[in-house]
Amino acid sequence: MDEVDQQALIGAVILEHGLDLDRLWLAHLALGGDASEQSIRDYSAGLAGLPVTDRDALAQAVNEHCVEAGLPARAPLSGSPLVQAHTGPRGPGLSM
Questions:
Q1: CA distances from 69 to 24, 27, 44, 62, 91 (A)
Q2: Alpha carbons 9 and 62: distance in angstroms, whole number
Q3: Could you tell me the pLDDT band of residue 42, with boundaries at 50, 70 and 90?
Q4: Which of 2, 40, 53, 56 is the most exposed place for a label (fewest CB within 10 A)?
C-alpha cells in the first residue's frame, strides 16, 4: 500500500470513530512503535509522515481499538492491497 493512501485511510478511521489519540499513541508504543505523541497527532491529521514500522504499529492499534469497541472500519497495514472504486462496463464497482 502506498504511504499516502495508508495515511489517509488510518486518519479517516480515527476521525470517523473519534478514537482517542492518547490511547492510540500508547498502544502504538506497546506494539513496537517509537514515534512521539505529537508525531502521531500530525500523522493522523495528514500533516506529517511516519516510518513504515510506526505506520503499521498505529494501524494495528487503531484496529485493536475498533475490535474492542465493535466498530466496523479497519486501518490498513503497509502490506495491504488497496481496493479502489472504479467505473467499468458494468458500472461502479470495486477492483484490486
A1: 13, 15, 19, 11, 35
A2: 11
A3: very high
A4: 2
